[in-house]
Specification:
Helix content is about 80%, strand content about 0%. α1 runs parallel beside α7 and α9 crosses α16.
Length: about 425
């Protein structure tokens, strides 16, 4: 019997729809700023693109560091006070933050905005805790997949909208992002019910409400700790996509901006189909264990193909394979949620958020360093596809880490 054998509250379809919309709007708001933030930094740096690139990289690291530090705290607070106030506070805080960034007169003010954004961007892990509260164990992977689809949809629509808005005014995307976040807060204030009843709430354990303390929860069960390590390694594999996709396809295939945009749209559509439409039926038919394994194998094959593709068309064939890798993450989250008490779902999602924060700090350095060593005139060896082969190797390691744990789950299920 697992720690979450206590039956959750009956799922509320209306509440899930709100949570889905929350994640979509938050990702649209975040995505809207993606194509314009570098340009705004360049403007502050007097047109010096090289100096702006360093600043932008520093901003990204600071944002990830805030996630690393504050995700466990917000997760613990949601276990104590409920998911609803944390989600609403996140929406409201992000709205005010985007207003600050729209008005920022200097780079330090813009940095303050990124710090606040990193602290308050808790909607996804708290939404995942919300789903854990109200969804039976057998349906969690499907719902986590839907959240992944919401993430992909929002982040696919956002950059295109931001690029279009920036043609009118470079600050306009931030105002639109603020409007989306505040509208989301207002909608949730009247619509979103609480998912965690008072009798299932836990006191805040301040020793655990931090990145180091979060390890205490993750190490509370051997299988949970193994899955946490696998989550870290799998997240490292993913870093090649957001950090190298544009640079790599420009370097190796000379893709135009239009081609890259359509490729990213294809990534979003394929990911949405897999996580929003395929994950639920697949988990129901085959279970989390098999979906996790199959998803990892699709990811391995996809990254190997992308790294070895000699043409842009061959590279593009890896997109649906990478999308099918999306079967793995919802299955992983569902398995992890089965090893904690209902009052610890927030702490768990906060700990996962902290793991991703660490990856967000070191991942870009790992993949960019690999690309620098294997591409261009100063490369030690000419193998530009090595950055994707490294991701494939990370997924092979993930497979090796989760295999003993999945065997344990299989034996328990057979008893």
């Amino acid at each position: 019997m697992t720690a979450t054998s206590i039956a959750p509250r009956a799922p509320r379809q209306g509440a899930f729809i709100f949570v889905f919309i929350t994640v979509v709007l938050d990702m649209v708001a975040l995505g809207v700023t993606v194509p314009v933030l570098p340009k705004l930094i360049i403007q502050f740096k007097g047109g010096d693109a090289a100096a702006a690139a360093i600043v932008y990289g520093g901003f990204a690291s600071v944002w990830a560091a805030m996630q690393f530090v504050f995700a466990p705290l917000l997760g613990a607070l949601s276990d104590r006070f409920g998911r609803r106030p944390i989600i609403l506070a996140s929406n409201f805080g992000l709205g005010l933050d985007y207003i600050l960034m729209a008005l920022a007169p200097t780079l330090p003010w813009l940095l303050v905005g990124r710090i606040i954004s990193g602290i308050t961007a808790a909607s996804y892990p708290t939404a995942a805790a919300y789903i854990s509260d109200v969804t039976p164990v057998t349906e969690r992977a499907a719902k986590f997949g839907m959240l992944g689809a919401a993430f992909g949809i929002g982040f696919t629509l956002g950059p295109g909208l931001g690029g279009w808005l920036s043609t009118f005014d470079l600050r306009l995307p931030f105002w639109v992002a603020a409007g989306l976040s505040l509208a989301n807060w207002l909608y949730g204030y009247f619509i979103l019910p609480e998912s965690l009843p008072r009798e299932r709430r836990a006191r805040v354990n301040w020793r655990k409400a931090n990145p180091i303390g979060a390890l205490t929860l993750l190490r509370s069960h051997p299988e949970l700790f193994a899955l946490a390590i696998a989550t870290f390694v799998m997240a490292l594999a993913h870093e090649a996509l957001p950090n190298m996709f544009v640079l790599y396809t420009d370097y190796r295939y000379h893709w135009s901006t239009v081609t890259v945009t359509w490729a990213l749209v294809a990534v979003g559509v394929c990911s949405g189909i897999v996580q929003g439409g395929l994950t639920g039926p697949a988990v129901k038919r085959f279970g989390e264990r098999l979906c996790l394994l199959v998803g990892l194998w699709f990811g391995i094959v996809g990254f190997v193909l992308m790294g070895g593709a000699s043409t842009g068309a061959a590279f593009a064939t890896g997109i649906p394979l990478i999308a099918l890798w999306g079967l793995a993450n919802p299955a992983m989250q569902s398995l992890m949620s089965q090893h904690v008490q209902p009052s610890e779902h927030g702490q768990l999602q906060g700990a996962i958020g902290s793991i991703r924060g660490v990856v967000g700090i070191i991942g870009p350095l790992v993949v960019s360093g690999t690309f620098t060593l294997t591409a261009g005139s100063s490369a030690i060896v000419q193998a530009p596809g090595a950055v994707f082969w490294l991701s494939a190797a990370f997924l092979v390691c993930t497979l090796a880490i989760v295999w003993p744990t999945l065997q344990t789950h299989r034996k328990l299920a057979e008893q």
